[in-house]
Design brief:
Blueprint lengths: L1 H115 L1
Length: 117
């Protein structure tokens, strides 16, 4: 009987050691899980910050693009006005040349008439 009790105590001790080992492994696994969870949370926060910064940069880029588009429209309007002005002045210059040529011809005729008298 004493041998049976001793055997039962040894079995109980072995079971206790086995349970302690399982408990330690479980504790280590839980700590690893907590570390992984914390690492993932930090990575998520970093990604969220990166997304926020990216969105801000995108918004600034869109604002700059809109500004450039507006300037481009204004530039195109100015360019069109300049082309119209060039055409207008070119026409005026042609008219002035025609008038000048007519004046020369008239002056020549007047000069010729004066010489005749």
């Amino acid at each position: 009987m004493a041998a049976a009790k001793l055997l039962a105590i040894e079995n109980a001790e072995n079971q206790l050691k086995l349970c302690q080992k399982k408990s330690e492994k479980s504790r280590e696994a839980w700590q690893k899980h907590e570390q992984d969870s914390e690492t993932l949370n930090l990575e998520i926060k970093d990604l969220e910050n990166s997304i926020k910064i990216g969105q801000e940069q995108l918004q600034k880029a869109e604002e700059k693009l809109n500004n450039l588009n507006e300037k481009s429209i204004n530039f195109n309007e100015l360019l069109e006005k300049s082309k119209q002005n060039v055409t207008e002045y070119t026409d005026k210059i042609k008219n002035q040349k025609t008038i000048t040529q007519q004046n020369k011809e008239l002056m020549f005729e007047i000069s010729s008439i004066h010489e005749e008298y």
